[in-house]
Design goal:
Elements lengths: L15 H15 L6 H13 L23 H9 L3 H21 L1 H4 L6 H18 L3 H12 L1 H13 L9 H11 L2 H9 L7 H9 L1
């Protein structure tokens, strides 16, 4: 009886981290951006975090009195400046990350708004610069300083990834969310639920099960 040759197994799926690692490396190469491995890793984690679009709209800060702080980037930056060090650094990191991601993935829609991409770059770069100054860990100082000095380079990398991956800026989650918040559009709400940005209420879940 002949020995049957075993067919080598082919790995059909990669982890989210592996997938984004490939995207980041391709984006850096295509944009000819040379950087540190730790910065590359940070970008991978950034993409993983915003894979859940709800993280774009998470609450950033609640005061001791329970009141939410204003949510514009400029107001968030000013609020962070007066916060205690741990809270301050966390707010600035979220602010810088969000400004970087939105500039890269939604720059097309920003160009048509009063608040344009230069605003996001200015606020994001300032947030990272402040972090670089106050952070004690040398590795993270290197990351934040790199983003502060070369913010637009990394916007270009994320824009390349946006245009060459499954996430398209033409189908802007932000634009859809903005429409829902302004008009209460049922269609926009349904799309956001499908995309996981909005959750169904318990009553809506019961209705769905009864249908």
């Amino acid at each position: 009886m002949r020995d049957q040759k075993t067919t080598p197994k082919v790995e059909l799926f990669v982890s989210p981290e592996g997938f984004f690692q490939e995207l980041v490396q391709e984006g850096l190469n295509q944009r000819k951006v040379q950087t540190y491995p730790v910065v590359e890793t940070y970008l991978v984690r950034l993409l993983q975090h915003y894979l859940d679009a709800r993280n774009l709209f998470e609450s950033d800060y609640v005061s001791e009195s329970g009141q939410k702080a204003p949510q514009t980037l400029a107001e968030m930056y000013l609020t962070a400046q007066s916060a205690e060090p741990p809270v301050k650094n966390e707010m600035l990191r979220k602010l810088g990350d969000r400004a970087l991601y939105i500039s890269g993935f939604f720059g097309d829609s920003l160009s048509r708004k009063v608040v344009d991409i230069d605003y996001y770059a200015g606020i994001g770069g300032a947030a990272y610069a402040t972090l670089a100054h106050h952070t004690k860990e040398d590795t993270m100082v290197k990351v934040y300083d790199t983003f502060a000095r070369r913010f637009q380079d990394y916007v270009d990398v994320l824009t390349y990834i946006s245009h060459n991956s499954f996430i398209k800026s033409d189908e802007s989650i932000l634009r859809l969310y903005d429409r829902y918040m302004r008009t209460g559009s049922e269609l926009a709400r349904e799309k956001l639920v499908e995309m996981g940005v909005l959750a169904l209420s318990p009553d809506q879940v019961k209705l769905g099960k009864q249908g």
